[in-house]
């Protein structure tokens, strides 16, 4: 291995070369962009995500919601309690299986959808990206998440011929 290859591997440790940091910092920026719009609705970003799922598929179990949002019940339960306190959702035990908790929208929660309908378009404008670019990026991120979720282990070191070609 020569010094050029060693330098390149060292460059992999630069913060701005990290995919994880690009995703993390972009997520923070996205959440900040949503904040003023969600403040008008009285929602936090995680609560908004819960509402999006329920507007799409009403009457889910806590487990189904958690799977859809990639959240565990320890994270999801406090969100649901706050949404229930705000009168946007109701939670009830499944009569067929007392272990399952069903989450449903209230009338107030259904009506809130009308106030939220313009948010995606406002966010699209904030990105200053064409719709097809946002759609392609979204599809690519879904594929990346799926690949990472399916990965059993991360190889200790990429093959030498792949390392430079796949460097972030």
Features:
mainly alpha; 3 strands; globular; 3-stranded antiparallel beta sheet; 168 residues
Describe this structure in words.
64% of the residues lie in helices and 10% in strands. The chain has 168 residues and is mostly helical. The longest helix has 23 residues, at 19-41. The protein starts with a helix and ends in a 5-residue tail after the last helix.
What is the fold's blueprint, element by element?
Blueprint: H1 3-11, H2 19-41, H3 45-56, E1 60-61, H4 62-69, H5 73-85, E2 89-94, E3 97-105, H6 107-116, H7 119-127, H8 131-150, H9 160-163
Antiparallel strand pairs: 1-3, 2-3
Short overview:
With 168 residues, the protein is mainly alpha-helical. The chain has 9 helices and 3 strands.
């Amino acid at each position: 291995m020569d010094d050029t290859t060693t330098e390149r591997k060292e460059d992999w440790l630069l913060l701005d070369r990290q995919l994880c940091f690009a995703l993390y910092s972009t997520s923070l920026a996205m959440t900040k962009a949503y904040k003023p719009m969600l403040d008008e609705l009285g929602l936090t970003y995680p609560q908004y995500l819960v509402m999006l799922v329920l507007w799409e598929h009403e009457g889910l179990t806590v487990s189904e919601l958690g799977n859809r949002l990639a959240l565990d019940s320890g994270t999801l339960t406090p969100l649901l309690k706050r949404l229930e306190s705000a009168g946007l959702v109701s939670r009830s035990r499944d009569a067929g299986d007392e272990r399952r908790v069903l989450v449903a929208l209230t009338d107030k929660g259904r009506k809130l959808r009308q106030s939220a309908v313009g948010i995606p378009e406002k966010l699209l404008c904030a990105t200053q990206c064409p719709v097809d670019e946002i759609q392609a990026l979204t599809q690519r991120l879904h594929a990346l998440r799926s690949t990472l979720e399916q990965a059993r282990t991360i190889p200790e070191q990429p093959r030498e011929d792949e390392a430079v070609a796949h460097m972030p």
